[in-house]
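Table S2 (continued). Query chain:
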Amino acid sequence: MSTQLNKERLMTVLVGPHVSEKTATLGEKNNQICFRVRRDSTKKEIAQAVEMMFEVKVDAVTTANVRGKAKRFGQTMGRRANWKKAYVTLAEGHDIDFLGAE
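Corresponding output:
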């Protein structure tokens, strides 16, 4: 039962890929992929989730908590939600292709 709960938890850890100029450069130079992840996820959970979903070998995981920006909504000030991102370093010879270009 705990392995089933663990797999369900791992399926919800990754929110999606985080694409920017910085992450594109990291992907080319350092074989790193950047993901938006749940704020309560751990590095170990992130590594297991990436290995399970994409069938690759993970070398390291680095996380960063990002503060939400203050934004104006009409006359009132609001704030976007805080979020967490994870830089996942893949082992040599492993790659994740999100675009599917061949």
